[in-house]
Amino acid sequence: MKNIFSLLILCGIFIVSCDTKGPATRMINMIPFESVEIHGELRERVLQNLNRLEEEKYQPQNVFLTEEQSGNWPGDTEGRTILGLVMDAQASKRSPVYLERIIDMIPSKLNKKGYMGVVYEGKMSEQQLSGNGWMLRGLCAYYEWKQDEKVLEYIKSIANNLFVAGKGFYTEYPIDPNFRDKNVGGEAVTIEVRGTDKWILSSDVGCLFIGMEGLIHAYAHLKTSEVKAVIDEMFAKLREIDILKIQAQTHATLTACRGMIRYADITGDYSYVEWAEKVFNLYKEHGMTENHANYNWFERFDTWTEPCAIVDSYMLAVQLWQHTENPVYKEDAELIYYNALSHAQRDNGGFGTDNCPGIASQENCLHPHSYEAHWCCTMRGGEGLGSAVQYAAFIREDTVYLPFFRDCELNLMLENGKLSLLEKTNYPFGTFAEFIVTENQQGKVTLKFPFMSWMENLTLLYNGEPQKLVKEKGFLALTNKFKAGDTIQVNFEMKLRKQKTLNSTNTKDSQYKMYYGPLLLGDEEIATGEYKNMLFNVNGRELTPVYHLMNNKVRHKEYKKQILFEE
């Protein structure tokens, strides 16, 4: 009888697996932080962000805010700070000075029911759920890193006493576009908008679903039916929303998409990935700016960018590539990283907001909107940069995917042993990358090197000998029993190219942009002086990349860079 029961369970699992939408092959897996040592400009960005998160503003005595200080976003600053510190620390291999003290203070900052903020009787606040969602994200990341059991108890408390206790409320979350106040909301300012008997609503329409993403992260560790029931209830409501008509916040929407991809991986139901893919493509058409950043709300073209959403879009693009192997998403991620995320990082290591060039703002130039969004974006920058470090390599069985060129050392554990590589590159300013094998215990390995649509005349050299180019879904594939000392070189050309604008509603048909490789180019009124060898003469204009390495000239109000040009 016992054997029969076991067989039935196995059959049941098999049936679920067959009925579930999703990849038929094994997942392409992201590598752990222990497998990568990052170098070059990305390392400098990570370290500068970590330095910023250890300044007085983010130290234990200041990071926990009152309800008033937070603008009714309890747990938001605290959770994002923990998450940023955890990601920066693992990416840089540098221990954070104040993180342990912040963690130790958490029990004294929870309310009588065990979560952040005030206790609402008979009501739910979407900002409170959002902020506690960030607490869950930060605590989950810390728990995954340190395996501290007391932190798991904090996760249980917030998940059960706030989110699970609210079951039934989520079905009544207001999503009627005619009811929600639109075209309101400010930078770092909470505007009290219309509410209901059961909901305290935010001008950041849809921020409830930031909370959902935090709960999904908690579910990965809790795995209770009660938590799952709430996630399912929240997602059912999310699927009903007309994102464009309600003018949902892009940050909240993209965060929700990332959450559903995580949920797909946990549950095995990859229909959630299909939903996220549809929303991301909607975002690219109606929510992405001309430098691959974000409008803060869908189709509110006169607003500003938010690096929190830029980080979300970057991570989501990579995750969609990981799950679909569609090379378009890999290129999306590359364009977001160089032209949006990197442009938003300031000379103090933090992240600030930028304007949105186009018809609505009556501007063709890109320039800072605020020097630093220290209340949220600086911390999320740590997650974005830390993720960029992890994205240096992915693994599936005996295949190593290298989706982006990065200066780094890789020590990868494959099915039969360790593979170590040293990667050196001058990309995107140059057109060369070299990979040196320092150890191979695996034996036969397939290495997949990145190529993008803007790369031409590619050559692949193995120990100096030209190889036949095997192109597979945005990669050059090379299979061999590599040995220590072997070298692989990837060479290519990139040319100046003209491209149409992304958003036809907020731009003119006659407008265009200029790129070199992944780098968006612009005409500066104040030259940053970087990358002097990358000056392009276009119709009498001297264009340089929007990308900069935390250049201090970008902090000044006078700094502008024209990115939209007329025929």
Task: Annotate the secondary structure layout.
Blueprint: H1 2-19, E1 29-30, E2 36-38, H2 40-53, H3 60-63, H4 76-92, H5 99-109, E3 124-125, H6 126-146, H7 149-163, E4 199-200, H8 208-222, H9 225-238, H10 250-267, H11 271-286, H12 307-324, H13 327-344, E5 353-354, E6 365-366, E7 368-370, H14 377-390, E8 394-396, E9 399-401, E10 408-414, E11 417-425, E12 432-440, E13 445-450, E14 456-462, E15 465-466, E16 475-480, E17 487-493, E18 496-500, E19 511-516, E20 519-524, E21 536-538, E22 541-545, E23 561-562, E24 565-566
Parallel strand pairs: 3-4, 9-13
Antiparallel strand pairs: 1-8, 2-10, 5-7, 6-23, 8-9, 10-11, 11-12, 12-17, 13-16, 14-15, 14-17, 18-19, 19-20, 19-24, 20-22, 20-23, 21-22
Summarize the structure.
This protein is α+β, with helices and mostly antiparallel strands. It has 14 helices and 24 strands. α10 runs parallel beside α12.
Structure explained in plain terms:
The protein is α+β, with helices and mostly antiparallel strands. Among the domains are: 54-248, no CATH class; 396-425 and 431-493, Maltose phosphorylase, domain 3 (Sandwich), CATH 2.60.420. It is 38% helix and 18% strand. Strand 14 and strand 15 form a beta hairpin. Helix 4 packs parallel to helix 14 (377-390) and helix 8 (208-222) runs parallel beside helix 10 (250-267). Residues 1-24 have low confidence and may be disordered.
